[in-house]
Amino acid sequence: MMGLQGKVAIVTGAARGIGRAVAIRLAAEGVSVVACDLDPRAPWLKTDDFIKEPQSVMSVVDEIRSGGGNAVGIYADITVEGEVNDVITLALKEFGRVDILSNNAGVALTKLVHETTLEDWERVIRVNATGTFITCRAVARLFMDQRSGSIINTASIAGKTGTPSFGAYCASKAAVILLTNVLAKELAPFNARANCICPGMVKTDMWKKLNQEMGKYLQLKPGQTPMEKLLEATPISKPEEPEDIAGLVAFLASDDAYFITGQAINIDGGYESH
Ligand SMILES: NC(=O)c1ccc[n+]([C@@H]2O[C@H](COP(=O)([O-])OP(=O)(O)OC[C@H]3O[C@@H](n4cnc5c(N)ncnc54)[C@H](O)[C@@H]3O)[C@@H](O)[C@H]2O)c1
After folding, report:
1. pLDDT band, very low/low/confident/very high, at 273 (cuts 50, 70, 90)
2. How many angstroms separate the CA atoms of 146 and 155, rounded?
3. Rounded to 10 degrees, what is the CA torsion of 24, 100, 89, 5?
4. Nearest residue to 152 via CA among 115, 124, 127, 187
5. Could you give the 3-state DSSP secondary structure of residue 112?
């Protein structure tokens, strides 16, 4: 156990992928989890090619509860300030405090810069950068008042190095990394921390989409997928599982990481190293 027992976490993007694994891992460590994600019944989702099979965040809540853990779920779009406020209100009502924010809600886009419409750009920046800003700002106020707390933002190795066809995504994740770095400096006097994690290639629905769309921008061997191509350049040349990422989030949330703040930590099998 990592000393997380009794803490309270808000986990965004918790319906599937990395966010889901984080919610389950934190709950297994004794954390009370407020899991949030988009409402899968929202009409605009039906026209969003990204979310073909929306999953409800309530299913992760059921899974945690059936394993004996503590969780509540709420539909919230992180780009809508009022909905994020509802998440905070629910956390305070159900569990009385917030100790951890794990931001995983995000969207990807594969287009060369000259193909990217203003609408594409604004959507990716709005969810990944602005949404992260809205949730961070909401908990920053709480963390300063209570003089503790840990923010863990899921950025990406794409926030550090450009990749063709990832212009909007890279820019959005670079924004997350620098926002987090600033927050770390602003929160340190209040005994609170902020870090980013930068995953490489994690087997989630997001990568299913990238595997379909990225091929035309890479020189693939016959039958090779984009992920297989990128793994060729990765020292630990196998895809990550969401659970691999969740362990790093749990560590950064814990008091064992009390000296780690302002960092953007790669968890990428060595794909990128400095
Ligand atoms: N999969 C990877 O290889 C990888 C690598 C690096 C970084 N990341 C980042 O990790 C995070 C999670 O990625 P994933 O692979 O699990 O993706 P995913 O698509 O499987 O899950 C993302 C979740 O975020 C939710 N979401 C999207 N927009 C939202 C909004 N406005 N409000 C609330 N929830 C919203 C979706 O409904 C979905 O459940 C993302 O920020 C992604 O950019 C993923």
Report:
1. confident
2. 26
3. 60
4. 187
5. coil
* Residue 68 placed within a domain: yes
Mutate to test the pocket of ligand 1, among 102, 204, 244, 249 (most ligand atoms within 8 A of CB): 204
Rounded Cα–Cα distance for residues 19 and 133 (Å): 17
235 touches 168 (CB < 8 A)? no
DSSP string, 148-207: --EEEEE--GGGTS--TTBHHHHHHHHHHHHHHHHHHHHHGGGT-EEEEEEE--B-SHHH
- Mean pLDDT, residues 102-110: 96
pLDDT at 55: 80
Say if 224 falls within a structural domain.
no
User: pTM for this one?
Assistant: 0.97
For the chain, what is the domain count?
1
Q: How far is the CA of 154 from the centre of ligand 1 (A)?
A: 9
Question: If you ran DSSP here, which 8-state letter would residue 220 be given?
Answer: P
Residue with tokens 């703040």: 261
Check if 26 has its Cβ closer than 6 Å to any atom of ligand 1. Answer: no
Counting atoms of ligand 1 from 1, which one is nearest the CA of 158? Answer: 6
Q: Would the CB of 240 count as within 6 Å of ligand 1?
A: no
Residue 183 domain-assigned (yes or no): yes
Specify if 246 maps to a domain.
yes
| Cα–Cα dist 31/274, whole Å | 34
Task: Check if 271 is active-site.
Answer: no
Domain range for 245: 8-205+241-267
Q: What is the CATH number of the domain that holds 63?
A: 3.40.50.720
Are 27 and 119 contacting, i.e. CB atoms less than 8 angstroms apart?
no
Cα 114 to averaged position of ligand 1 atoms, centre (Å): 24
Ligand 1 mean position, distance from CA 79 (Å): 14
